[in-house]
Amino acid sequence: MADISKELEAWRSARYGKDVRQAQIDLSNKLNTEVEQGTQTVNNYTAAESARVEAEAARVQAEADRVEEFDQMMEDAETAIEDVRGATIAASDYITQQGQRAEAAANQAEAAVADLAQRVENGEFNGPPGPVGPPGEDGKDGADGVIMTLTAGQIAMQIQDGDLHVYYSDADDPPGYSIQDGDLILNIEEGGE
């Protein structure tokens, strides 16, 4: 609060009208200045408080928006997790179905191979011999044969006078080949692989 004791003293001690008037004016000016400064202080405080209240309201709104965004993010994450779970289950089911189909196809292929092997073994693909064609021209004499040493696992074959001769290493068991009705036959029971 302003110190107006000097102005009050001047007003009280004034004897003449002009001095009283001047003391009244000085006192009024000092009080007016003080009121204006107080009003300005109050206005400044009010403006600052309004700004603080607005800032706090903005902060509260920002926090509410952040919480809402976080809640939405969590909801979106839960939806995404459920989508991934559903996709994983669907993919697993698809893979299981494809595996079952592949296994069924493999079983069918194995059955077809076994059936074909059985039909070959049964001779279903051996047709009757065709008609004998006219004899061709005599071929040129071939080069002399080559003598070589057979190592384990190697065989050599030669037909002489309608007989099949099979040559093999002494380290091997004799392979079980024969000719039956003009066909070369591997007799597995007799030692061939």
Assign a percent range to the helix content.
55-70%
What is the alpha-carbon Rg in Å?
Answer: 59 Å
Which ranges are low-confidence, i.e. pLDDT below 50, for 5 or more consecutive residues?
Answer: none
H/E element sequence: HHEEEE
Shape annotation: rod-shaped
Distance between the termini: 123 Å
Report on the biggest sheet.
2 strands, antiparallel
Structural class: mainly alpha
The pLDDT mean sits at 83
Strand content: 5-15%
Q: What does this protein structure show overall?
A:
The protein is mainly alpha-helical. Helix content is 59%, strand content 10%. It has helices spanning 5-13, 17-121, and strands spanning 155-160, 163-168, 177-180, 183-186. The strands form two sheets. Strands 1-2 form a two-stranded antiparallel ribbon. A two-stranded antiparallel sheet has the order 3-4. Helix 1 (5-13) packs antiparallel against helix 2 (17-121). The radius of gyration is 59 Å and the shape is rod-shaped.
Write the layout of secondary structure elements.
Blueprint (H helix, E strand, L loop, with lengths): L4 H9 L3 H105 L33 E6 L2 E6 L8 E4 L2 E4 L7
Helix pairs in contact: 1-2
